[in-house]
Design a protein that fits this description.
The complex is a heterotrimer of chains A (473), B (461) and C (95).
Chain A: E1 3-14, E2 52-53, H1 54-66, E3 74-75, E4 78-81, E5 91-94, E6 104-107, E7 113-123, E8 127-130, E9 134-138, E10 145-151, H2 158-175, E11 187-197, E12 207-212, H3 215-234, E13 242-247, E14 252-258, E15 268-269, E16 276-277, H4 280-287, H5 294-302, H6 308-315, H7 318-330, H8 335-346, H9 361-372, H10 378-387, H11 398-404, H12 413-425, H13 430-437, H14 444-454, H15 461-471
Parallel strand pairs in A: 12-13
Antiparallel strand pairs in A: 1-10, 1-11, 3-16, 4-5, 4-15, 6-7, 7-10, 8-9, 11-12, 13-14
Chain B: H1 10-23, E1 30-33, H2 35-50, E2 62-66, H3 93-100, E3 104-109, H4 143-150, E4 156-161, H5 167-173, E5 176-179, E6 199-204, H6 207-217, E7 243-247, H7 257-272, E8 276-280, H8 288-303, H9 322-333, H10 336-349, H11 355-378, E9 381-385, H12 401-406, H13 412-417, E10 421-428, E11 434-441, H14 446-458
Parallel strand pairs in B: 2-3, 2-4, 7-8, 7-9
Antiparallel strand pairs in B: 1-3, 4-6, 5-6, 5-10, 9-11, 10-11
Helix pairs in contact in B: 1-2, 6-14, 8-10, 8-11
Chain C: H1 5-15, H2 21-38, E1 62-63, H3 74-78, E2 84-85, E3 88-92
Antiparallel strand pairs in C: 2-3
The chains are: A alpha+beta (473), B alpha/beta (461), C alpha+beta (95).
C-alpha cells in the first residue's frame, strides 16, 4: 500500500526590536556577557510588571501582512505555565486565546500553497549551558520577542517542507522584522509529521520533531521520520503521539516526551497586560510600509530568464536581489551576466563572507558592458568582478581595475600583427604555416594559441583569427 | 498628623515612634526596624528646615511599611521563609513617592505570608496581636500596619488590599483603611498576590490624613501598565445630600447584632446630616466569595510560580536534582496557607476544570460588575459592614480555612469589581472591640467616600 | 466534591511542591471543602456572558522601543541567587 505524509510546521521567529517584548532592555545579546541584558523584569523580581513594546506589535503586523494574514484588531496575552530554570516567571507570556495574527496563505516558489493557521506574539526563554553535574542559566535571551507561525498541515514532502521554511525565512527577512540568522537561532522550526494510506481522508498519529534550525536538517529529519513511521506501520505497529528530537550527526530522530507525559500548561489570561485593540487605519499605516516581497523580485527576474535555482539562490540575499533589480531596470540585456556572477561566484562558499554592498549597480553594469564589448574575456570579467568586492578597491572603477590587473583585451591590429609576424617566423610554427597555405585551416587554431600565449592572454582571439587569415591566404 | 517644621523636629517624631515600637514589642507588629537610617533621614530633614530649604508635604513623618513592599532599605520578607533574607535591589513606586515628600519609613510590618490570610496568623514570624484585645487577631493580611496606627506608633502605614487586607484589619483595630479604585496606586515593587485585584492603600486615624497620603501615592506609573492617570486632584462630590444604599444582604442573619447596631448608628448620623439611606439587596453578592476564591487562587498560583529557589529566595539544602530544588525549596519556603491557595489555583486552572471553575468565575464576575453598575445608577455610595463579626480569637479559625475565608465575604465583592472601598470606625462592642463600616463607591469616587467618612468624625458621639 | 489521592498528588506536581503524606491528607480535606463551596457558582446562569479578566477599560498600554536604565544591574540581581558561577545562575544539571 502507498502512504502519503502530511506535515505541519511551527516556526519561532525572533524579532529584531531594540528592546525586549516586555522590558526596555537591550534585545541584542550577540557577543555580550551572560546576563548583561537582563532587567529586574526579565529576572522576574517580585513586584515587577511587563510593559509591552509597541515596536513588537508593529513588526508582528508587518510579518502578518507579508504572509497575507488577516490582522486581528483585538488580541490579548495569556500565561503559559511550566517550570524550567530558563523561564524566570514560571510562565511564558504568549497569546493562546486571541492571537494578533489570523489565518493567511503562503505561495511557494514551486507554486504550491501552504495556509497559515495563525501566528502570535510571545517571549523567548533564556539559555542553559550544561556541565558535569550542573547547568548554568543565562537570561540574556529571556524576554526577546518572538512570533510563532503555525501552518496548516498542507505540506506533503520533505522537499516541500524545506521550501516552505526557506520561503518563510525569505518573507521575514524581506519584511525586515528579524535578523534571520539561523545559526544564532533567530528562526527555529518544529515539524509535525504523520503518514496515512494514500487517499485516506483522515490523518495518522503525528510525531513532532522539535527545534530544527537549518533547512537541510528540516528536510533530512522529515525524510527520516517518514521512513521510521512507514517501517513501523509496515511491521503492523502503531505510531505514538510524541515529541522527538533530531540529531544531525546520527541523522536520526529520538523520542523525547510522549503524549501521556505532556504538560498541563494551565493557560490563563494575563491580568497584568492590557489588551491590544487596533483600528483598521493603524494596521494599514504599518502594513503600507511593508518592504518589497520575494514574489515581487521573482516577477522582475522573469525578464532575465534565469533558472529557478539561480533566482532562489539570489533571493536568499536581499542585498543582491535589490542590486539585481536595479541593474535590470537599467539594462536588462547586461543583467543576466551579473546574475550569473552573483549565483556562480559571489555565492560560492569561499566568497560568502564578502560585503555584498561593495560593488555598486553602475560598476556592475560597466563591467558587464566591457565583457559584452570584448574589452574583457569572460574569464577576465570574473576576476575583475570578484576584485570589486575587495575593500581595498572600493574607489576604483572596473576599467581601472582591469588595467591594473592588465586583463584588457588587445584589439589594436598593428600591435597584434607584429606579434603574429613573430609567431609565423618561429621554426616550431613552420609546419602549421605550410599546412594552412595548403588549405588545412584547422591548424590555424594552433597559431592562435601561440599568439595568445605571446600576448599573455590579452589578445582578442577573434581579431587574431582575422589577421592570420589575411596574412596566410 | 504632625509634620516637621521649625518647632517640631523630625528627629523627635522618629524618636517618639521608635520608643513606642519598643513599648509595644509584645504585639509583634514589626518584622524589621529601620532605626539608624530613619534617624539619619530625620536629621537631614531638620537640617534642611534649619537652612530654610523646601521640604515635602510629609517632612519627617514616620510611617510603617507592610513587609510586602520592595525597598533597597532593609529586607522584604513578605512574612515568609521564602523571602526571609531577600534584600530587594529595587524600590516600590509607592515608597519612592513617600520618600520624595519626606516621609520616613521606620519599619516593616507583619502580615500573613504573601498576604494570604485574614488574621496575620499565617506569618512565618508569628501572629500580631489585636490592638484592643491581645487574645484576638489583628486581622489581615495587613495586620501589623493596622495595629501600628491603632496604637499610635505612626500616624499612617502602607498596606495592600486584594480582598479585604486593609479594610478588615482597619475594622478590627478601629482605624481608617482605604482600598482605592484598582489602578489608583502603582503596584510596581509590591509582591504580587492576585494581579487583577491587588491594590495599594493606607491606614490612618482620620479621613483627612488618609486623603493627604493617597493624594501623594496616586498616579500613573510607566512601570505599571494597569495604573490609572491621577484622578485624586479631581474635586469629590460636594457635601450635598448623597444617596446611600445600605446593602441588606449583609445586614441579615449570621451578622453579629452588635455589628449591625454600629452600622445603624452611622446610618442615623448620616441621615441627620441630610443624606438619604435606603436598603438595597444585591443577590449576586452571595457569590462574591466563590468568585474571589477561584480568580484569586488562580492568580496566586500563577504569581507564586516564580518562587522556585533558582534566582532568589529560599533554596533548600542538600538537593541532588532540579525537581528537589524546586519541590523542597517551595515546600520549605511557603506556609500551609500558601500551599493551599496554590493547589486550589492550579486545580481551577487545570485542564478539565478550567471552564467549569476559572472561566465560570470570570463570567460571574461580569454579572457582579453589571449589578454594581445598576445599583450606582440609583445610589452614590453603598454601605455595609467590613466583616460579619469583630476580631476573633487567635487560633479560632486556623484549622478551618473555609471559616477563615468566610470572614472576607463582605470585603471581596468590591475588589472583584475594582471599586474603591473604605473601612471607617463605626463604634465598639460591649466587649470593647471596634467595628468598621464599609463605604463602597463607583470607580474613582474614592474622595467622595472619604468626605462622607469625615462627617462621622465631625459629629459628636 | 471528592478528590482522589491521585488527583491531590497530581496537583502537588502541578504546584511543584514536595508534600509528605500528612500534608497531602490535610490538603485533600481542605480542598474538598473549599471546592465544594466555590462550586455553588453552578447555580448561576452565565450563558452568553463575556468573562471579565481585568476590571478596567485600558488598552494599548505600550512603550516606545528605547533602551532605558534600570536601578538594578547584573551584579545586584545575581547577588540574590544562592549559587552562581561566571555571571550565571547555577542549578543542578538539567536533564
Amino acid at each position: 500500500m502507498k502512504y502519503t505524509m502530511t506535515i505541519g510546521i511551527e516556526c519561532h521567529v525572533q524579532l529584531n526590536t531594540k528592546t525586549k517584548l516586555f522590558s526596555a532592555v537591550d534585545n541584542n545579546a550577540v557577543d555580550k556577557e551572560p546576563n548583561s541584558c537582563v532587567s529586574p523584569v526579565d529576572y522576574a523580581l517580585p513586584g515587577t510588571l511587563p510593559v509591552l513594546n509597541k515596536a513588537a506589535v508593529e513588526k508582528a503586523i508587518l510579518a502578518g501582512t507579508a504572509m497575507n494574514c488577516q490582522i486581528n484588531l483585538t488580541s490579548r496575552f495569556d500565561r503559559k505555565h511550566y517550570y524550567y530554570p530558563d523561564l524566570p516567571k514560571g510562565y511564558q507570556i504568549s497569546q493562546m486565546y486571541q492571537p494578533i495574527i489570523g489565518s493567511g496563505l503562503i505561495k511557494l516558489p514551486d507554486d504550491s500553497e501552504v495556509r497559515i493557521e495563525h501566528a502570535h506574539l510571545e517571549e523567548d526563554a533564556g539559555k542553559l549551558t550544561h556541565f558535569g553535574n550542573y547547568s548554568l542559566v543565562d537570561l540574556n535571551r529571556a524576554g526577546t520577542p518572538l512570533i510563532e507561525i503555525v501552518s496548516m498541515p498542507d505540506i506533503h514532502s520533505p522537499a516541500q517542507a524545506r521550501l516552505y521554511c526557506e520561503e518563510l525565512h525569505r518573507l521575514m527577512a524581506y519584511a525586515g522584522i528579524t535578523n534571520g540568522d539561523l545559526y544564532q537561532g533567530n528562526m527555529r522550526f518544529d515539524v509535525n509529521i504523520s503518514i496515512a494510506p494514500e487517499g485516506s481522508d483522515k490523518l495518522g498519529t503525528r510525531a513532532e520533531i522539535k527545534n530544527l534550525n537549518s533547512f537541510r536538517s528540516i528536510e533530512r529529519a522529515a525524510e527520516h521520520e517518514y521512513q521510521r513511521q512507514l517501517a513501523l506501520i509496515e511491521k503492523g505497529e502503531s505510531i505514538k503521539q510524541e515529541t522527538r528530537g533530531w540529531n544531525d550527526t546520527t541523522a536520526k530522530t529520538t523520542a523525547q516526551r510522549s503524549k501521556e507525559e505532556a504538560q498541563d500548561y494551565r493557560y490563563m489570561p494575563d491580568p497584568d497586560v492590557p489588551p491590544i485593540v487596533l483600528t483598521k487605519d493603524f494596521v494599514e499605516n504599518i502594513a503600507k510600509n511593508l518592504p518589497l516581497t520575494p514574489t515581487y523580485y521573482r516577477n522582475e527576474f522573469k525578464k532575465l530568464n534565469l533558472d529557478r535555482s539561480e533566482t532562489e539562490a539570489i533571493l536568499n540575499y536581499p542585498i543582491l536581489a535589490k542590486k539585481l533589480v536595479d541593474v535590470t531596470q537599467n539594462d536588462s540585456k547586461l543583467a543576466p551576466r551579473i546574475a550569473h556572477w552573483f549565483s556562480g561566484l559571489l555565492l560560492a562558499e569561499e566568497n560568502l563572507n564578502k560585503d555584498f554592498e561593495l560593488a555598486t549597480a553602475s560598476e556592475l553594469l560597466e563591467l558587464s558592458q566591457m565583457v559584452e564589448k570584448n574589452k574583457l574575456s569572460s574569464t577576465a570579467g570574473k576576476e575583475v568582478f570578484l576584485s570589486l568586492y575587495n575593500p581595498k578597491n572600493t574607489s576604483k572603477s572596473p576599467l581601472a581595475l582591469a588595467k591594473e590587473m592588465n586583463l584588457l583585451q588587445e584589439n589594436d591590429t598593428d600591435a597584434l600583427s607584429a606579434i603574429i609576424d613573430e609567431v609565423i617566423a618561429l621554426p616550431e610554427c613552420a609546419s602549421a604555416v605550410t599546412d594552412i597555405k595548403n588549405g588545412e585551416t584547422k591548424a590555424i587554431s594552433f597559431l592562435i594559441g601561440q599568439v595568445m600565449r605571446k600576448s599573455a592572454g590579452k589578445a582578442n582571439p577573434a581579431t587574431v583569427n582575422q589577421l592570420l587569415k589575411q596574412k596566410l591566404p | 498628623m504632625k509634620v516637621a517644621n521649625k518647632t517640631t523636629k523630625a528627629v523627635d517624631l522618629v524618636q517618639a515612634a521608635l520608643s513606642k515600637i519598643e513599648e509595644y514589642k509584645y504585639y509583634n507588629i514589626f518584622i524589621s526596624i529601620n532605626a539608624d537610617s530613619a534617624l539619619q533621614q530625620a536629621a537631614k530633614i531638620d537640617q534642611r528646615i534649619a537652612n530654610g530649604e523646601k521640604v515635602g508635604k510629609l517632612a519627617g513623618v514616620p510611617y510603617a511599611l507592610k513587609d510586602n513592599f520592595l525597598s533597597r532599605e532593609g529586607k522584604t520578607t513578605a512574612a515568609s521563609r521564602m523571602l526571609k533574607d531577600f534584600a530587594a535591589p529595587i524600590t516600590a513606586t509607592a515608597v519612592k513617592k513617600l520618600e520624595e515628600e519626606g516621609a520616613i519609613m521606620i519599619g516593616r510590618t507583619n502580615l500573613d505570608a504573601f498576604a494570604h490570610g485574614s488574621s496575620t496568623e499565617n506569618s512565618y514570624f508569628g501572629p500580631t496581636l489585636n490592638s484592643q484585645d491581645q487574645t484576638r487577631v489583628a486581622g489581615g493580611s495587613s495586620g501589623g500596619s493596622a495595629v501600628a496606627v491603632a496604637l499610635g506608633i505612626v500616624p499612617f502605614a502602607l498596606g495592600s488590599d486584594t480582598g479585604g487586607s486593609i479594610r478588615q484589619p482597619a475594622s478590627y483595630n478601629g482605624v481608617v483603611g482605604i482600598k482605592p479604585t484598582f489602578g489608583t496606586v502603582s503596584r510596581y515593587g509590591v509582591v504580587a498576590m492576585a494581579s487583577s485585584t491587588d491594590t495599594i492603600g493606607c491606614f490612618a486615624n482620620t479621613a483627612t490624613d488618609t486623603d493627604l497620603v493617597m493624594s501623594i501615592l496616586s498616579g500613573q506609573d510607566p512601570k505599571d501598565p494597569t495604573s490609572l492617570s491621577n484622578f485624586w486632584q479631581n474635586k469629590p462630590k460636594p457635601d450635598q445630600s448623597l444617596r446611600i444604599g445600605l446593602i441588606s444582604d449583609f445586614m441579615a442573619e449570621g451578622v453579629d447584632p452588635e455589628v449591625k447596631d454600629c452600622i445603624n448608628h452611622c446610618v442615623s448620623k448620616w441621615q441627620k446630616n441630610g443624606h438619604t439611606v435606603e436598603n438595597i439587596s444585591m443577590p449576586i453578592l452571595k457569590y462574591g466569595l466563590a468568585i474571589y476564591y477561584i480568580v484569586q487562587t488562580a492568580e496566586v498560583a500563577s504569581n507564586l510560580s516564580r518562587y522556585d529557589g533558582v534566582r532568589y529566595g529560599h533554596r533548600a539544602q542538600d538537593i541532588t536534582n532540579l525537581n528537589e530544588l524546586y519541590g523542597k525549596s517551595r515546600d520549605e519556603g511557603f506556609m500551609t496557607e500558601n500551599n493551599r491557595r496554590i493547589m486550589i489555583g492550579n486545580f481551577v486552572l487545570s485542564s478539565g476544570f478550567f471552564d467549569a471553575y476559572y472561566l465560570k468565575a470570570q463570567k460571574a464576575r461580569t454579572l457582579l460588575i453589571n449589578a454594581y453598575n445598576d445599583v450606582f445608577k440609583k445610589f452614590d455610595v453603598l454601605l455595609c459592614p467590613v466583616a460579619p463579626s469583630p476580631a476573633f480569637k487567635i487560633g479560632e479559625n486556623v484549622n478551618d480555612p473555609l471559616a477563615m475565608y468566610l470572614e472576607d465575604a463582605m470585603s471581596v465583592p468590591p475588589s472583584m469589581a475594582g471599586l474603591p472601598a473604605i473601612s471607617i470606625p463605626a463604634g465598639t462592642t460591649k466587649a470593647g472591640l471596634t467595628v468598621g463600616a464599609q463605604l463602597i463607591g463607583a470607580r474613582q469616587s474614592d474622595r467622595t467616600l472619604l468626605n462622607l467618612a469625615s462627617e462621622l468624625a465631625k459629629e459628636p458621639n | 466534591m471528592s478528590i482522589t489521592k491521585a488527583e491531590i498528588i497530581h496537583l502537588g506536581k502541578l504546584s511543584n511542591i514536595s508534600l509528605n503524606d500528612q500534608q497531602l491528607t490535610n490538603l485533600n480535606q481542605d480542598l474538598e471543602n473549599i471546592i465544594s463551596y466555590i462550586s455553588q457558582l453552578d447555580e448561576l446562569n452565565t450563558e452568553g456572558v463575556e468573562p471579565t479578566y481585568q476590571c478596567f477599560d485600558m488598552a494599548n498600554v505600550w512603550r516606545e522601543d528605547e533602551i532605558t536604565e534600570f536601578e538594578a544591574n547584573r551584579e545586584d540581581l545575581l547577588a540574590l541567587s544562592a549559587d552562581t558561577a561566571n555571571h550565571q545562575i547555577k542549578v543542578p544539571k538539567v536533564l
